[in-house]
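ENCODED BACKBONE
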Amino acid sequence: MASKSKAKGNRFEYLIRDITQEIGLKCQRAWGSDGRSLGWHEEVDLLIDNTIKVQAKCRKAIANWMLPSAEVDIQVIKEDRGIPLVVESYDTWIDRIKELKDLKKQIKGVNNDNVNGTNRKRARKPRKNS
């Protein structure tokens, strides 16, 4: 039987997978929380749409200063000489990813069609020899 800590981590990974799949994105949990089972580094716990590698961490408490207040959309944090990190709710973040994916599909569709919405090539006038 897995330790309480391992079981808690597994439940959290399944929760992230389920939330992601509910909005229509592909999400695969690495067997045994080991990304090598998906062909990635061992620290990868989940793979979203075959491109976003996720490591899930569940703690009893998170420092209040790290959490965004109700008046802001995101909290940006940084350690001394470190890189800035963004903190926001997973639901908000995954919705943004879904919107970006849908927008990318729309743009790709527009690029494949010409202005009037058909796939027909525009006739070109022959060039005059100079």
Remarks:
- The chain has two helices and five strands.
- The chain has two domains: 1-58, 61-115.
- The first helix runs from residue 4 to 22.
- The beta strands are 27-29, 46-48, 52-54, 75-77, 85-87.
